[in-house]
Write a structure and sequence with these properties.
The complex is a heterodimer of chains A (281) and B (307). Chain A has 281 residues and is mainly alpha-helical. Helix content of chain A is 75%, strand content 0%. Chain B is mostly helical.
């Protein structure tokens, strides 16, 4: 009996320890959200969203050029990354049951967890060095390398959730395989695919490291594909390094804008998948 | 060739682009870092980019990466495992849904925001609640020596621990849920308590998958750049050797982030930084392949090895 009691107590202790682990993980998230809102809100005013930064050391000005840069990067990256990601996802789901498919899948899995700064160096070597200037294009290519594996994975998994009976029914009607894939399978799985796209955009919008050596950062608004550009993440980093109070406030403000962008993309992506085919990323 | 074949080959070609990219990446990194690659590069401790007396040794940064990642693993993996056990074995359904969502949000926070929070908030928590007590009572141990300042190797390691929790806990949870219920039922039928079921029936079965999850976390930790760069203090040369946890340090990734834009293109400085990138590439590739192998094996058992 004594021994049974000890076993029971042990059981309760483990339960408590696990619960404590959960709480430890939630504290940072709570603190980050709280601090970003508390310190970021005072920075928000009309100048903040309409003007570029003033001279360093003088308060005033805004982060409009950084917001613009981030949006341009998202656009360019999506233009390159979404088609490639969806097409490789389709290939893996519908025709990827072979050696080549396995290699592609493994490469995507590896790239998904890859240090983004190394991807940034790569984009620097193949784009920035040859054209001789920092460029939004190089940034977009680096981010596309991060985006493609995410979209490929989610597309593949959501296509695989489409029941085979749909494919068979379509073929029984004499519809070609490729047409079946595009008009039946892809359409049935579209909420999963869109989720993947949204998550990948959220991920690339928060990337900083590969932008250091590709778009460099700038005080000005977008001025061409072969000129340096700014982005929210780079601006947050640079502002945090300045020794001025106003810069830190602006940094928190920029962080607030970024976190709203990233978290709203994430939350809506989760709500979207709740409906039909659930995919885990 | 039928339209179906054309469609298939076009898709196949496009999905091959990523494989090509990875190959091209290693080639380019190797080509540019060739002028500096030597044993002295890997085992040297001096770093001097001044033309004429150039010297590049990256041992302090390799060690910095290893030490911060080790802290992340030692602190982050047990916590993640606790979360995974709670989520897969103990939590009621609605709590499980909410908690998984919260932990996914933790993964979604951009690393530069972790850095900002680390620089202005977390650093003081570490200094006041961990470093000051440790340096007061355990200062005779070499790794706890030095002035507690908050911008140091310990803070960097702890922030990495927080950042790997979502990855490690969600993968371990998937692995735990892949353990067949017959394992649990067998243990229950022997009269085991919940913890004994988890220990005997679940954890021992899922061991290799959990190791895989931890290695995946390691992969994330060694490559993480911004958050580390903002809190590690950015020491250079022999000063960056991680001899104490309460000392400014430098990791490979933070070195690249800090110096890349300042490097003089006519010197070997950019090549040296690209060389650091190459080492990081090789480390990350090895770690990720290993993790994939371990996780893939255990998840495959559950799926009945269908291919």
């Amino acid at each position: 009996m004594q021994k049974y009691l000890i076993r029971k107590i042990k059981d309760k202790i483990v339960y408590a320890v696990c619960l404590i682990c959960v709480i430890i993980a939630i504290i940072p998230l709570g603190s980050i959200l709280f601090e970003v809102i508390k310190n970021g809100l005072p920075a928000l005013n009309s100048d903040f969203f309409t003007k570029g930064p003033g001279p360093i050391g003088e308060s005033g000005g805004g982060i409009a050029n950084s917001i613009q840069g981030t949006l341009i990067l998202i656009g360019l990256t999506s233009l390159i990354g979404i088609p490639i990601g969806i097409m490789s996802g389709i290939y893996l789901a519908e025709h990827g049951n072979n050696q080549f498919g396995r290699i592609v899948r493994l490469t995507n899995n590896v790239l998904m967890q890859f240090p983004s700064i190394v991807i940034g160096i790569f984009a620097y070597l193949v784009i920035v060095l040859p054209i001789g200037s920092f460029s939004p294009l190089a940034g977009a290519i680096a981010l596309a390398i991060i985006m493609v594996p995410i979209i490929t994975r989610t597309t593949e998994e959501s296509l695989k959730l489409v029941p085979n009976t749909l494919r068979e029914a379509s073929m029984a009607l004499g519809i070609r395989r490729w047409r079946t894939t595009v008009s039946i399978v892809l359409v049935s799985a579209k909420s999963g695919v869109i989720t993947g796209i949204m998550l990948s955009i959220a991920r690339v919008a928060g990337e900083t490291a590969p932008l250091i050596m590709t778009i460099l950062g700038s005080q000005w608004f977008f001025s061409g594909l072969t000129e340096p550009m700014d982005a929210l993440t780079l601006r947050i980093w640079r502002l945090s390094l300045l020794p001025y109070e106003y810069a830190h406030t602006m940094g928190w403000g920029a962080a607030l804008v970024l976190i709203i962008l990233v978290l709203s993309l994430n939350v809506s992506a989760r709500i979207l998948t709740r409906s039909r085919y659930r995919v885990k990323v | 060739m039928s339209p179906d074949d054309v469609f298939k080959y076009i898709l196949g070609f496009i999905s091959g682009i990523v494989v090509l990219t990875l190959f091209l990446m290693v080639l380019e990194l190797f080509r540019y870092s060739l002028p500096v690659l030597s044993l002295k590069f890997i085992f040297g401790i001096n770093w001097n980019p001044v033309v004429g007396s150039e010297e590049y040794g990256i041992l302090p940064y390799i060690l910095g990466t290893l030490v911060t990642s080790a802290i992340a693993i030692f602190v982050g993996v047990p916590i993640s495992l606790g979360i995974a056990i709670y989520l897969s074995e103990m939590a009621p359904n609605f709590i499980r849904t909410i908690l998984s969502f919260v932990i996914e949000l933790l993964a979604a926070v951009p690393s530069v925001i972790y850095g900002l929070w680390g620089l202005f908030i977390f650093r003081f928590w570490v200094r006041d609640f961990i470093e000051v007590p440790l340096s007061k009572h355990l200062a005779f141990i070499p790794i706890f020596q030095g002035e507690p300042f908050g911008l140091d190797i310990l803070t960097a390691g702890l922030i990495l621990a927080i950042m790997i929790i979502p990855t490690v806990s969600s993968v371990s949870r998937e692995v735990l849920m892949a353990v067949p219920d017959s394992q649990r039922e067998a243990a229950y039928s022997l009269g085991a308590t919940k913890w004994e079921v988890i220990r005997l029936g679940v954890l021992s079965y899922a061991k290799s998958g959990i190791v895989g999850a931890a290695i995946l976390g390691l992969g994330r930790a060694i490559g993480e750049t911004m958050a580390v760069t903002m809190v590690i203090g950015n020491a250079i040369g022999p000063a960056a050797l991680p001899t104490s946890l309460f000392k400014a340090g430098q990791t490979m990734a933070s070195l690249i982030a800090n110096e890349f834009n300042e490097a003089d293109p006519t010197s070997l400085h950019p090549n040296a930084l690209i060389g650091v990138g190459l080492i990081l590439f090789v480390l990350a590739l090895t770690i990720n392949l290993l993790a994939q192998l371990l996780i893939w094996r255990i998840l495959k058992i559950k799926e009945g090895a269908v291919e």
